[in-house]
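Shipment paperwork, digital attachment
Item: protein structure file
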Amino acid sequence: MTGRTCDEVRRALTQEGLALPPVTPPLAAYQPAVRTTSTIYTAGQLPMRDGSLTHTGQVGAGGLSAAEGAAAAGVAALAAIAAACSVATEQEALRPVKVTVFVAAADGFHDLPQVADGASAVFAAAFAEPHARSAVGVRELPRGASVEVEAIFAVLPPQ
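Attachment content:
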């Protein structure tokens, strides 16, 4: 497992018809990503495009479908990767280690893994490497978002 530089990630995503968005400015008192010597932690990223949420409300029970939730998770995953790339150097390779997907789930909605698969698909397209993942159902998320994605990346030395 060698990871990919952010430039390699951008090229891989372009081949899938995807692109990293600009990093969303913090909505409160935090940073979008923070790094240590060999690890990058992203803050929870919402499904934002051009400063607006792309998906709001709960998933399930008359709200968004699991497929719509997965699409939202993909948008938020792109934001998490962009945040990580904002604190990495051009020469460093990143490898996603752990992805957590929070889903604003309606009562009785149990298809959280299918929603989280939207984020995992984006990480797979970007990095072509496996990652650990958690899918967590919550009552609500900031700004009424339907999903929130946070990630931990290993920072690998230049090869």
